[in-house]
Amino acid sequence: MPSVMLPKRFLSVKLLRKVKSFSTSANVMPKKKPKWRSVVGLEIHAQLNTKSKLFSGASTNFGSLVNDNVSLFDAATPGTLPVLNKKCVEQGVLTALALNCQVNNVSYFDRKHYFYADLPAGYQITQQRRPLAENGFLEFQVFAPAKKRFYYKTSRLKQIQLEQDSGKSLHDDNLKRSLIDLNRAGVPLMELVFEPDLSDGEEAASLVKELCLILTRLRTCSCRMEEGALRVDANISVHREGEPLGVRTEVKNLGSVRGVANSIDYEINRQIQELEGGRIIENETRGWDAVSSQTVPMRDKEVKLDYRFMPEPNLPPLRIDLSSSESDLICVEKLYSSLPELPSETRNRLKETYGLSPEMVNNLVNEDQLLSMFTEVLEAKTSRDPKIIAKILTIELMTLVNKELTSLSDVKWNPKILGEIIDFLQEDKINLTTAQFLLQEIANNNPNSPGEIVSKLGLAQISDSAALQELCSQIIKDNPKMVQQYRSGKTKLLSALLGVVAQKSGNRANMKQATQIMKDLLSS
Amino acid sequence: MSHNKVVLASLQRACLIKELNAFISIAQPQDLSPSRSTDRLNGFTVAIKDNFCTTDFKTTCASQMLADYNPGYDASIVEKLRKEGAILFGKTNLDEFAMGSGTVDSLHGPTKNIWGSPLHYTIGGKERKSKPSWRIAGGSSGGSAVAVASGTCRIGIGSDTGGSTRNPASYCGVVGFKPTYSSVSRHGLIPLVNSMDVPGIITRTVDDAVLTYNVISGHDPKDSTTVEVSPVKLDDKFNLNKIKVGIPREYHCEGLSQEVLEVWKSIARILQEAGAKVSQMSMPHTSSSIACYSVLNQCEVASNMARYDGLRYGHRSSQCKSTHDLYASSRSEGLGLVVRGRILAGNFFLLQRNYSKYFEKAMKVRRLICEDFKRAWDEFDILLTPTTLSGAPELRQFAGLDNREQCVMNDYCTQPANMSGCPAISIPVALNKNELPLSLQLMSKNYDEETLLSVARIIEKYVSFPSIELVDT
């Protein structure tokens, strides 16, 4: 991509110079500066989904008592040594494969030194010289609000490395003391370093969302950002089109998708404001204050740290089997064949096999439980219309979920109940309004099956054309005013009249048929 | 001897050598549980260098930093020794964090050699003739060497990073064996240089060294650098007919004493006469080993010592205006000058701008040294060299040198084996005119402990080095 971009950029620089020299010499035209461009790159720390830590047997359980998940090694007890957790390597490789990376057959661990109270050994074990995997990419959809449509974007993934998390410091300002919790110390992380291929907060948020879908699908990370299982650092800079990249700042430790989008957009604007005000951007680390909705400088910016990297002497090189030889090494080929269907593949399948709309596809893929409901309902009876299933799930059921009237994990939403409602709808036995009503009833713990509710409350749809004809004629008779207005050109009133049909029929009329009958009657 | 008698005898000896300052902690008799007669080390008393973690004793590394430290676990080799019935008799003195070669830089004061000391002892059953003077025990495992030399313990456990087991063994007239790197677990050994540290074995005889090695060696899941090794079996019929012995020219270095040179020559001749093919050869990068070691040592020291911040364990200063202030004062109060000097140098070498100039270059030199060894093993089974350059120096004279000078003098012959990882053993071969032990070193190909120890035993038998016995007056 950059090689294609280059000539264009070059051209614009030339143009810019021309304009500049013209305007200064003539001194007539106001200087028109080229547009601002923003450049964003993400570094994402994802906690691997293992029971024990990267180099020790201590538990990774979230929410354990303070300092409960701490082995001798995690507390940097002298004489203890790191022992690599095989599961972490397998999950790292699996992730690398899903993100189109090249897995290195040999990678190394290094020590990165800095003094911090929650870093017990005084160094973090990471992979600096040669990471687990390199040169991947991630394609994702971005919703452009201005154009109200999706577009595709790709970010290159520079590398994936395995490393330890640090502990947590709690500062008590009143008592003037700090407390340390080492439960997180040594928890396995993979750091995914993306190239600066993004241009704004929305793209960054979309990347994070897609990554979460993939990692959740792979079960290599829970992606529970609220538990700190996935944290995002964003490198941000702005420059004028055609000019070299600007000085970047790093916004660290973003813990929510919205935080990613908002902080990046805030930081882009802040940098533009600063530069337009004639000030400069400092290369610094900032944090996101969600309460005041702004990025703020972090306190430890005074010295640039020299991490004094050194090979970790207690861990032999990590060797991975790239072909399928008969060794006891971790085998890439075996892991590759165990890859599940990835979200992008699911989207394609849903679109191409069932002809679902992009919105429905996204809604299904974004919600794992919804997708499995869709699959189960369809597999239970293949004659069911996938579009009706998708509509009931992504729109009608989700409306109730979003109103917090029910939850997707509720056992009520089993394929049998959902299938029954969908069948009624597909067979024209009920209309959409009734379907909505049934969902509501079940959400409200109505113990009856949809069929029983329909028959008990007499909700079956009226599709008998004679009956509908009679109902419509009656309504025309009862509303002469509206009818007259309609006939004199106010065709909008048709929906008002149909509303009366729905109401009079107790929401049972087959509205498709009723619409046609009403139209016919009105125009006769 | 019954278990109790053994312990009692050891306690008596420990009392006799109190002045030598070999022990930091000694077990109470009631804490020593009897072993089963089937155990391989049944009744063997063991002195453990105080940089191996133990649950029975505090583990101080002879440093203010860990003066009252109880690590709460046993090092893997301590577990193995215990399981085979060994009596964990006590913890022995060392240079602070094993950084030294004299056992003089210790929180607990220097350890003194039994040889030449004013203590009452006999040599080979005869009264000593030489004038008494305090001499260094060598180091950094000086305490364990003295414990074995004095007959207080049957086995001494040391650690060997640049010669720290072989060097004191050489000065104390006992066998000092450094196995191949990766054949003995380092889990629980408080590290000096992770890529070179090996637990070392100090005994009076080669046979005891073999027995101890067979107990403590082998793969340990807690140390990822270890591998499975097969036990060493010494064959009484072993002869030297097929053994090729190399005499590396470069070990004839500046400062080598005439007396050591002479025993070196005489043992070479003896080996040849016994059927071995002995020839001179070259290890061209030997003289670079000390400089290279110095850089790698200090880098790893800087890194390994970063954890001593006084927060979770160890010395904590009462000065604590801020976290960083607390670190600084805890570390400067808790760590000695030598340790702090190495930390400073190591951190300098590891700075991004210096990394390729020092660390990376030292790694390249290390590879050249390893290649010297690889080439040597194509042609030779054994290398025969001095261990130390002379008999034990006087304490007063030695203490006048700085730590670097001490190490340069002492580690020259022992250090290269740690670079290549090969096994090496120091065995006493003669007494000098002052009745001090002189020792030689043998090295063999990595994992070829069997040849190394077989040849060592042949020399041992031939020289029948006189034993030293304390006299209880």
UniProtKB/TrEMBL annotation, chain A:
<comment type="function">
    <text>Allows the formation of correctly charged Asn-tRNA(Asn) or Gln-tRNA(Gln) through the transamidation of misacylated Asp-tRNA(Asn) or Glu-tRNA(Gln) in organisms which lack either or both of asparaginyl-tRNA or glutaminyl-tRNA synthetases. The reaction takes place in the presence of glutamine and ATP through an activated phospho-Asp-tRNA(Asn) or phospho-Glu-tRNA(Gln).</text>
</comment>
<dbReference type="InterPro" id="IPR023168">
    <property type="entry name" value="GatB_Yqey_C_2"/>
</dbReference>
<dbReference type="GO" id="GO:0050567">
    <property type="term" value="F:glutaminyl-tRNA synthase (glutamine-hydrolyzing) activity"/>
</dbReference>
<keyword id="KW-0496">Mitochondrion</keyword>
<comment type="similarity">
    <text>Belongs to the GatB/GatE family. GatB subfamily.</text>
</comment>
<keyword id="KW-0067">ATP-binding</keyword>
<dbReference type="Pfam" id="PF02934">
    <property type="entry name" value="GatB_N"/>
</dbReference>
<dbReference type="GO" id="GO:0070681">
    <property type="term" value="P:glutaminyl-tRNAGln biosynthesis via transamidation"/>
</dbReference>
<keyword id="KW-0436">Ligase</keyword>
<dbReference type="InterPro" id="IPR014746">
    <property type="entry name" value="Gln_synth/guanido_kin_cat_dom"/>
</dbReference>
<dbReference type="Pfam" id="PF02637">
    <property type="entry name" value="GatB_Yqey"/>
</dbReference>
<dbReference type="GO" id="GO:0032543">
    <property type="term" value="P:mitochondrial translation"/>
</dbReference>
<dbReference type="InterPro" id="IPR042114">
    <property type="entry name" value="GatB_C_1"/>
</dbReference>
<dbReference type="GO" id="GO:0030956">
    <property type="term" value="C:glutamyl-tRNA(Gln) amidotransferase complex"/>
</dbReference>
<dbReference type="GO" id="GO:0005739">
    <property type="term" value="C:mitochondrion"/>
</dbReference>
<dbReference type="InterPro" id="IPR004413">
    <property type="entry name" value="GatB"/>
</dbReference>
<keyword id="KW-0648">Protein biosynthesis</keyword>
<dbReference type="GO" id="GO:0005524">
    <property type="term" value="F:ATP binding"/>
</dbReference>
<comment type="subunit">
    <text>Subunit of the heterotrimeric GatCAB amidotransferase (AdT) complex, composed of A, B and C subunits.</text>
</comment>
<keyword id="KW-0547">Nucleotide-binding</keyword>
<comment type="subunit">
    <text>Heterotrimer of A, B and C subunits.</text>
</comment>
<dbReference type="InterPro" id="IPR017959">
    <property type="entry name" value="Asn/Gln-tRNA_amidoTrfase_suB/E"/>
</dbReference>
UniProtKB/TrEMBL annotation, chain B:
<feature type="active site" description="Charge relay system">
    <location>
        <position position="140"/>
    </location>
</feature>
<comment type="subunit">
    <text>Subunit of the heterotrimeric GatCAB amidotransferase (AdT) complex, composed of A, B and C subunits.</text>
</comment>
<dbReference type="InterPro" id="IPR000120">
    <property type="entry name" value="Amidase"/>
</dbReference>
<dbReference type="GO" id="GO:0005739">
    <property type="term" value="C:mitochondrion"/>
</dbReference>
<dbReference type="GO" id="GO:0032543">
    <property type="term" value="P:mitochondrial translation"/>
</dbReference>
<dbReference type="GO" id="GO:0050567">
    <property type="term" value="F:glutaminyl-tRNA synthase (glutamine-hydrolyzing) activity"/>
</dbReference>
<comment type="function">
    <text>Allows the formation of correctly charged Gln-tRNA(Gln) through the transamidation of misacylated Glu-tRNA(Gln) in the mitochondria. The reaction takes place in the presence of glutamine and ATP through an activated gamma-phospho-Glu-tRNA(Gln).</text>
</comment>
<keyword id="KW-0547">Nucleotide-binding</keyword>
<keyword id="KW-0067">ATP-binding</keyword>
<protein>
    <recommendedName>
        <fullName>Glutamyl-tRNA(Gln) amidotransferase subunit A, mitochondrial</fullName>
        <ecNumber>6.3.5.7</ecNumber>
    </recommendedName>
</protein>
<dbReference type="GO" id="GO:0070681">
    <property type="term" value="P:glutaminyl-tRNAGln biosynthesis via transamidation"/>
</dbReference>
<comment type="similarity">
    <text>Belongs to the amidase family. GatA subfamily.</text>
</comment>
<keyword id="KW-0436">Ligase</keyword>
<keyword id="KW-0496">Mitochondrion</keyword>
<dbReference type="GO" id="GO:0005524">
    <property type="term" value="F:ATP binding"/>
</dbReference>
<dbReference type="InterPro" id="IPR036928">
    <property type="entry name" value="AS_sf"/>
</dbReference>
<dbReference type="GO" id="GO:0030956">
    <property type="term" value="C:glutamyl-tRNA(Gln) amidotransferase complex"/>
</dbReference>
<feature type="domain" description="Amidase">
    <location>
        <begin position="7"/>
        <end position="453"/>
    </location>
</feature>
<dbReference type="InterPro" id="IPR023631">
    <property type="entry name" value="Amidase_dom"/>
</dbReference>
<feature type="active site" description="Charge relay system">
    <location>
        <position position="49"/>
    </location>
</feature>
<dbReference type="Pfam" id="PF01425">
    <property type="entry name" value="Amidase"/>
</dbReference>
<dbReference type="InterPro" id="IPR004412">
    <property type="entry name" value="GatA"/>
</dbReference>
